[in-house]
């Protein structure tokens, strides 16, 4: 992840200060991430990916490497050290017209993301197993297995598992 963040920052011709300002985090945190001294949380990766003009899936795939055909066993996964949720980049072409991401969230876990993480994206959430509470700004959506929600305009959001069992859902992402 460290190399992927640094490479994209350099690619975009951003200084550490400029990336920190765009992401709303300290320069010290950017330095720790790029040096591999800090395991970034989902919220931090969301801020960094948005500031770098990438989806979270693109950033994870750049860290893991991706091919046109990606077998399940080779699909890049990342686990948030804070919430324990795991995201798997299902799509073989990260950064393409459509990205599919499978997320498994442990019981009673949650992950929050700032609105600017989604400023250039459209999302749909499809719950595969369990119950997901999705807090979109002031609105709370309770989604059960089989339910699908198209997200509205970018807003601060929280993905929350209110139950004693894991929730598994698919996120479909396209660029605006």
Automatic annotation (TrEMBL):
Domain of life: Bacteria
Alphabetically ordered keywords of this record: DNA-binding
Organism from which the protein derives: Actinomycetospora termitidis
Lineage: Bacteria, Bacillati, Actinomycetota, Actinomycetes, Pseudonocardiales
One Pfam family named in its UniProt record: HTH_3
Thylakoid found in the keyword field: no
Domain HTH cro/C1-type: 5-59
InterPro entries per UniProt: Cro/C1-type_HTH (IPR001387), Lambda_DNA-bd_dom_sf (IPR010982), RmlC-like_jellyroll (IPR014710), RmlC_Cupin_sf (IPR011051), TransReg_Diox_bact_type (IPR050807)
Protein name stated in the entry: XRE family transcriptional regulator
Database matches in CDD domains: cupin_XRE_C, HTH_XRE
SMART domains linked to this entry: HTH_XRE
Stretches assigned to coiled coil: none
């Amino acid at each position: 992840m460290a190399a992927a963040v640094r490479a994209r920052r350099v690619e975009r011709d951003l200084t550490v200060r400029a990336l920190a300002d765009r992401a709303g985090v300290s320069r010290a945190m950017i330095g720790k991430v790029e040096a591999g001294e800090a395991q970034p949380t989902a919220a931090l990766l969301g801020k960094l990916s948005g500031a770098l003009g990438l989806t979270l899936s693109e950033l994870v795939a750049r860290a893991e490497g991706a091919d046109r055909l990606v077998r399940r066993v080779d699909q890049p996964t990342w686990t948030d050290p804070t919430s324990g949720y795991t995201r798997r980049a299902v799509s073989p072409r990260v950064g393409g017209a459509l990205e599919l991401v499978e997320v498994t969230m442990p019981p009673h876990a949650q992950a929050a993301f700032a609105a600017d993480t989604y400023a250039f994206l459209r999302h749909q959430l499809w719950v595969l197993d369990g119950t997901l509470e999705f807090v979109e700004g002031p609105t709370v959506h309770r989604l059960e297995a089989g339910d699908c929600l198209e997200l509205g305009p970018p807003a601060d959001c929280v993905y929350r598992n209110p139950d004693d069992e894991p929730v598994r859902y698919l996120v479909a992402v396209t660029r605006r």
